[in-house]
Design brief:
- With about 120 residues, this protein is an all-beta fold.
- Helix content is about 0%, strand content about 55%.
- A hairpin with a 6-residue loop joins strand 4 and strand 5.
Length: about 120
Amino acid sequence: QVQLVESGGGLVQAGGSLRLSCAASRSISSINHMAWYRQAPGQQRELVASATSSGITYYPDSVKGRFAISRDNAKNTVYLEMNSLKYEDTAVYYCSLTWLGSTAWGQGIQVTVSS
């Protein structure tokens, strides 16, 4: 069973930056898809960043130009760089990695942006 552990969340002022990390318990060199989602209270979980193994990325308009997904295979870690944070970015953030059709999820980490 693959385990994903997120870190790097916390409280930040509007306009600030955070980098979330998602460390996997196995090699990520063969993943074919990686993504970050978020869920605010009373809201559905939404996709905020994704990337395929071929390098195709997707960001919704709400975060485009502010968020960036990346990976470090040597560290088995996927990142979400978040800049120019807004109050509405407050949510629990989850990473999701897919290996050959098998998907693992992290436990979630809180990001709170104060206005």
